[in-house]
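Regression report. Comparing outputs from two consecutive submissions.

Submission 1:
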Amino acid sequence: MKFGPIPVAQATGAILAHSVDLGGKRLRKGVTLEAGHVTALTAAGHETVIVARLDPGDVHENDAAATLASALVPDPAAAGLRLTAPFTGRVNLMAEGPGVAVMDVAALTALNAVDPMITLATVPPFHQMGPGGMVATVKIISYGVARADLERACTLGAGAIRLAQPQLRTATLIITDIAGGLASTEEQAPDKGRAAIESRLAALDMVLDRVVTVPHRSEELSDAIAGAQSDLVLILTGSATSDMDDVGPAALRRAGGQVERFGMPVDPGNLLFLGARDGRPVIGLPGCARSPALNGADWVLSRIACGLTVTAADIAAMGIGGLLKEIPSRPMPRAGRGDRKPA
């Protein structure tokens, strides 16, 4: 591509690089100049104009953006995404429903190294999306790029972005009561965290179909876990889980389940545990899940709800970038005295 000023008389077919005043009207940048434009420029007293002229092997910005977006998402319906029409060298990749953004980070990093004029910006990997949210944007910075570079970028990024959509539909919430009382119906389970948890599930197209309160003892909690029939089991203990042998993890093992991980390097959210029983995922929620503010449990819940496997290694990797905002409900802020902080 050639870029720079040329005589107006020679500008037909070139792309206007900067908007130009035509004496009350404005000829906007990006337009491909036609004979009428040249006449108007001359009449307005312009002798030269800054333009971009594509070489035979170049691809126009809009065509390039559309081509790259289609390579990234060859089947938008299957990927849960919608591609916008190209405009000024940009195509946006929009979520068609709730879900989690899944991407090949290495491939997309390589794509962005092909040519600085070919760019792709995305949300973070595994970011939870709502309907209509922008997952990524393709932007061709220049008015055209070399076809060879575009083809290489398309090859590197082929099929590298998708939206993992919710696979689980129902959840049981088991709340433990330190006072030892027992409630078997939803009306008897007034824990203040229920509304925040229901909201989280609703954002993932899930429903809380059962809420049970049991005494904060592993025997009763174990029975409740064993009796849960929902797609997902959530446990919110009345006292923070502080050890692998504490009430929550111990109850899961007693019920015949397995604990994949206790503790996560995300703050708030340290005191989460993750496991399963008979193929049904079980998440022991940290106390901060009672607040609607973002915490580590959200990162695990969204992936699990969307059918993605979460391993102990996955949780360990969440620590980089895992220092989240302070939440108002934290009884002892991080900056306070002492080192025993509810999580």
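Submission 2:
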Amino acid sequence: MIDLNAYLHNLIAACKEAFSDRLLYVGLQGSYLRGEAHERSDIDVMILLDRFLVADMDVYRSILKRLGHFELSCGFICGRDEMLRWNPLEICQIKHTTKNLFGTLTDYLPEATRADEINYCKLSLGNLYHTLCHRYIHADQPRNIGKLRAHSKDLFFLIQNIHYLETGRFVLAKRDLYPLVSDEDRAMLDLAGMTDDADFDEAFSSVFLWCRNAFKRLEL
């Protein structure tokens, strides 16, 4: 495992040197923030710059390469003006899944409402529902088993956000969310551990039924 604190300290220092007062924000996202990282986990960092240019991407890439672990570097870089005009549907997720390291993220986010959060969930759920139906009809079953398991992250984010809408509490880590949700939600969170010899028809039916019920839950 990398020394995350040292890495982030060096990253912020290098960005300050390279971008000076144009560096507005640095935040941590992903598995390291959730406390779920392993040695091959991505290092998800969010960077906001004032007057963001293509040349800045070249500079940032060189910083990441110089720091080491470039193959694990990941995340999001954006300009201030673009962030202030971002789709409000995504703001709840961004706000709750980013930890401030330098600057304050909410200073650069557009306003978002509860209706935006509901529509974010509806959009994500609709995309998942469509993908499930399309693959079931058009792909063979062996391939579908692996693809179904790959949807575990999509389901986690949906359950995380629906739980927030239903309770007012945004739970960051899967291990903390697991005991707080229903048996049906927990079955979806367990999907990541589905083996290749699992009963695909039963697993698919449970995910499909969960999606149908989730549409009803979003009638808030």
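Expected: both submissions complete independently.
Actual: both completed, but the second showed a warning that disappeared on reload.
Relevant detail on submission 2: The CA atoms of residues 29 and 97 lie 6 Å apart.
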